[in-house]
Write a structure and sequence with these properties.
By secondary structure, this protein is mostly helical.
Length: 213
Amino acid sequence: MTSTATVPRFESSKVHSLTRPNVVSVGTIVWLSSELMFFAGLFAMYFTIRSQHPGNWPMDLPQDGGIHAGEQIHISLAYALPFTIILVLSSVTCQLGVFAAEKGDVFSLRRWFTLTFFMGLIFVLGQANEYRIQVGEGNTISRSGYGSVFFLTTGFHGLHVIGGLLAFVLFLIRTTLSKFTPAQATAAIVVSYYWHFVDVVWIGLFATIYIVR
């Protein structure tokens, strides 16, 4: 959902073009490529554990005398789907903010980015509550192979979402305390790259964990 940036409509005569490659944008894309390889490793770990447990999946909790011993781990598609939809829609609001930035419309940009922030926050809180439910049902990161891959894959993604939320906060503060500039418009585009990335990764995780059993 990325966009080819156009020059924002700024009154300043010193308008820097957003149509040519920007060092920050290119650096962000390179960094996100390395992050993609990191998540590829997490996916490989997930499917490796899955291949070693050809029976029930999610697997049964071990017979270790702990809470819910021997019961199958339950992962709720119905619970995760609304939060997934919210996160995916946040990519739409984020991109609308980018379109506003390209036009130099700082009011609309802040409005769309603020909405995106709260949608991302809802997703993180929903994921935290799911962790609470899983731990309450006996599924922890150290108790089973499934627990390990579930908490590691979704946990690292959650940390990336939190990083995106911090980026939105810092960007909103920066655009509030100073005059909106073409450099800040470029920053809005870079933030959107990152946010679209975490959304796409989550779609893959969602399909892997909640749909492909």
